[in-house]
């Protein structure tokens, strides 16, 4: 085997490896963007939950001071506080469910790297 043939083989391996790396980096970029979008939505739910919790405190306080000062102030204050507390809890519950059921970040990229590793080690589709 000549030196030229060896160099051509090494060059082909390098080009193939660079192509695989490029594809994996593209996949990582796509998954990173998806994860950022998912976390942005989670942040919106968190802000909504804090907003409703703040409204519960604000409206309960205003209600006690202004509207029902002389009459059933306690009953109405408890009712509104309960309502906004339930809304806040619902937002937190939704956020928790979304976090628990979301796929692990970069799972597709990790799986592709495992397949590449298996292929390079000569395994037929088995992960090491």
Describe this structure in words.
With 128 residues, the chain is an all-alpha fold. The chain has one domain. It has 3 helices and no strands. The longest helix is centred in the first third of the chain and has 65 residues. The chain is rod-shaped and about 100 Å long.
Question: Which features does this protein show?
Answer:
128 residues; mainly alpha; 0% strand
* Helicity level: over 70%
Largest sheet: none
Oligomerization: single chain
Whole-angstrom Rg: 29 Å
What class, by secondary structure content? mainly alpha
The H/E string reads HHH
Note the overall shape: rod-shaped
Taking pLDDT < 50 over at least 5 consecutive residues as the criterion, the unreliable ranges are none
Number of domains: 1
Average pLDDT taken over every residue = 80
Q: What is the β-strand count?
A: 0
Distance between the termini: 33 Å
The total of helices stands at 3
Fraction of residues in β-strands: under 5%
What's the quick description here?
This protein has helices at residues 3-67, 73-101, 107-121.
Compile the SSE list and pairings:
Blueprint: H1 3-67, H2 73-101, H3 107-121
Helix pairs in contact: 1-2, 1-3
